[in-house]
Design a protein that fits this description.
The chain is α+β, with helices and mostly antiparallel strands. The chain has three domains: 153 residues; 143 residues, no CATH class; 119 residues, no CATH class. 30% of the residues lie in helices and 23% in strands. It is built from 15 helices and 29 strands. Strand 10 and strand 11 form a beta hairpin. Helix 1 packs antiparallel against helix 4, helix 3 packs across helix 4 and helix 12 crosses helix 15. The longest helix has 20 residues. It is globular, with a radius of gyration of 26 Å. It starts with a helix and ends with a strand. Bound molecules: adenosine-5'-diphosphate and magnesium ion. Adenosine-5'-diphosphate binds next to helix 6.
């Protein structure tokens, strides 16, 4: 087995690089097939793409390990990490991902078996084929790695079971949040701090382990770990207060990442937020296309209509207002806001400022007056980090103080303080919902020079056709392959005609969700060999909203 490919590579040795083209197709090996799906034209072109398929009869993983979509994703997540470890070599590239276990194209378990997709640089000496090196890589290294990872008999049974069970527990925990009327949960013993701002692995030693305050302690029963306790954050408005450097942002960041499942050992395996949780921040300079921001912004000095507001260069406050309205439009059920990245003038306006600057001179209605109506009228909860303004005590259902990395509930004390008059008056009592936006299908174009172009620049930007979409402020994009997935999702919507016929953004996202409800990787990967991760609707919407070419036809 593999002999045919070896013979072909020997025949090609020393030939022109372009002759590698003859490798395209499927090659049989002992226990798997290798499909050479794309051959690079020259040594400097993007790498060639390979697809390894191991049928279930050979891989032989117990069906229980991949019997549900969650378990199949977890098993694939385990295998892709193992395969990437085995193929740690300059020639191969396996998109294993980081601390999150995401649904990715690089590895999946389907009805037929285990599928591993990877990239490889076909070796050359200048523009000549190095057939011997290619043979070593494709006929020795790769089969050895496949045999060592993609088979039940080769992997550590306890380790793989623990991995799959852990992810299933995380998922189960997240699913129980709504019946417990919680928006988030952080288990006792969780490790939230990370190594650094650019290293998502846990702080070595773990720092101060998480311990819930008794008053917010909740016990839940998980399928594998059994009973666990932790802090439940109830629906409504929750404040996280505390001194600088006491761990407020670290907690909020864990909630923000809590929409994803984390690998065992990460420390955040049981730190979860509801799946429809969206982090909000200010992002001055972003474009805004016809968003009704009138809940937050009235009568701008320019005279612009804030029920139908567009700008190529939003201010901090208007960008944050637009992002909140857009998040609600996409279906967010919980918002997360950190003072570190919020626009202060959109968050608060105290009594003295109210007295000095009359309402008719101040276009902004601060979030402090809207956060409660948002929950009472629309059922949307908010978790806010606020270390600098006690005005939020008036509107908070719960106040949690971080004290040297330990949460303490201080709701009663905050309530008592809220009894003291500040002279501040509320500037709003309702949260008017924005009108729906109908997208102009001609404005969403994945093509550049007649060809679909979807690339990522790390997790920072999406190249979509001729456009560069800045995603730096979309903080729940955690993996470059998610960026590609977002691009593929938008391209899929265009191709499927989901934008045609006066479709609102919300309907568009619903149509996408319906298409991705089954085998999402198959749907998004239909026309692409690139590595990608299946994105959430919230990040797809965030990218669409940041597409500078986006045009809205009408508001309905
Ligand atoms: P805040 O937002 O309250 O100012 P941060 O969340 O930014 O504080 O945390 C300040 C520092 O403390 C960061 O370097 C963070 O990594 C670290 N840190 C956070 N939580 C813990 C913890 N539980 N144990 C040890 N260090 C922590
Ligand atoms: Mg902070």
């Amino acid at each position: 087995a593999g002999a045919a490919l070896a013979a072909e590579l020997r025949r090609l040795d020393g030939g022109r690089y372009g002759q590698y083209r003859s490798l395209a197709g499927t090659w049989r090996f002992d226990g798997f097939t290798l499909r050479v799906a794309r051959v690079q034209a020259d040594p400097f072109a993007p790498p060639s793409r390979l697809v390894v398929h191991v049928p279930h009869e050979v891989a032989d993983f117990p069906a229980g390990l991949w019997s549900t979509p969650v378990r199949a994703r977890a098993l694939a997540g385990y295998l892709v990490r193992r395969a990437a470890g085995e193929l740690r070599d300059r020639a191969f590239r396996v998109d294993a991902g980081g601390q999150q276990v995401l649904e990715r194209s690089a590895c999946r378990i389907d009805a037929s078996g285990v599928v591993l997709r990877l990239a490889m640089e076909l070796p050359g000496r200048g523009r000549t084929i190095d057939g011997r090196a290619a043979e070593r890589l494709l006929c020795d290294r790769l089969p050895a790695a496949v045999a060592a990872t993609l088979r039940w008999s080769a992997v550590d049974h306890d380790e793989v079971r623990a991995f799959v069970d852990s992810v299933e527990d995380t998922d189960a925990l997240r699913r129980t949040l709504s019946e417990l009327r919680l928006v988030a949960f952080v288990a006792d013993g969780s490790v939230l701090p990370r190594r650094s701002g650019v290293d998502d692995r846990p702080l070595p030693g773990g720092g101060v382990p998480f311990r819930s305050p008794e008053s917010l302690r909740v016990e839940v029963e998980l399928p594998h770990r059994g009973r666990v306790t932790g802090m439940g954050i109830p629906e409504g408005v929750t404040l996280i207060v505390g001194g600088g450097f006491h761990g407020k942002s670290t907690l909020l960041r864990a909630l923000e990442r809590g929409v994803y499942d984390h690998v065992p050992g990460d420390g955040r395996e049981l730190a979860v937020a509801r799946a429809d949780t969206v982090k909000i921040r200010a992002e001055d300079g972003r474009r805004v296309e016809r968003v009704d921001v009138s809940a937050f912004v009235a009568h701008l000095p320019t005279g612009a209509d804030t029920t139908d507001f567009s700008t190529d260069n939003a201010s901090g406050s208007t960008s944050q207002a637009a992002s909140i309205v857009e998040a609600l439009e996409a279906g967010a059920g919980t918002l997360l806001v950190d003072e570190d990245t919020a626009a202060t003038n959109l968050m608060i306006r105290d009594a003295r400022m109210q007295a000095l600057v009359a309402k008719d001179k101040e276009p902004l209605t601060p979030f402090v007056d809207l956060v409660r109506p948002l929950h009472r009228q629309h059922g949307v909860s908010t978790v806010l980090v606020v270390g600098g303004s006690g005005d939020y005590f008036d509107v908070a259902d719960r106040v949690v103080m971080m004290d040297a990395y330990r949460p303490v509930e201080v709701t009663e004390r905050a309530r008592a303080l809220a009894e003291r008059p500040t002279g501040r008056h509320a500037e709003a009592t309702t949260f008017p919902l924005a009108r729906d936006r109908v997208v102009d299908p001609r404005s969403v174009r994945p093509e550049a020079n007649g060809r679909t172009k979807i690339r990522h620049r790390g997790a920072d930007a999406l190249v979509f056709g001729d456009s560069d979409v800045d995603l730096r402020a979309v903080e729940q994009v955690v993996d470059p392959s998610q960026v590609v997935g977002i691009g593929l999702a938008l391209a899929h919507c265009v191709r499927a005609g989901h934008l045609d016929g006066a479709v609102t953004v919300h309907e568009l996202l619903d149509r996408l969700a319906a298409d991705l409800a089954g085998d999402a990787v198959a749907v998004l990967g239909e026309r692409s060999l690139d590595d990608f991760v299946v994105p959430r609707r919230h990040e797809v919407a965030a990218a669409l909203n940041r597409l500078r070419a986006l045009r809205v036809l009408q508001l309905v």
